[in-house]
Input
Amino acid sequence: MTYRGTCVTAVSRRRRRSTGRPATGSRFFLVESVEARAAAGNAAFAGHLEAGHHIHYLADAEYVDRQRDVFERCLLANRSRE
Output
């Protein structure tokens, strides 16, 4: 089974925009890695893509990115209490 990635370019663009944001960037890196392995012929990774798992990872990254200010405020507030 082979898989040809359909969102690598879009993911790469989003990943570049998320530089400096580890929570977001790591999810984009995960999708790029899964797509690369699927394209290399790994059936397990191709199965994950066919099941749409990458869509969940991208949605998570976009959510974290949209809510970044909220997360940062909470983390900074908790840090000041320590």
About this structure: Residues 1-9 have pLDDT under 50 and may be disordered.
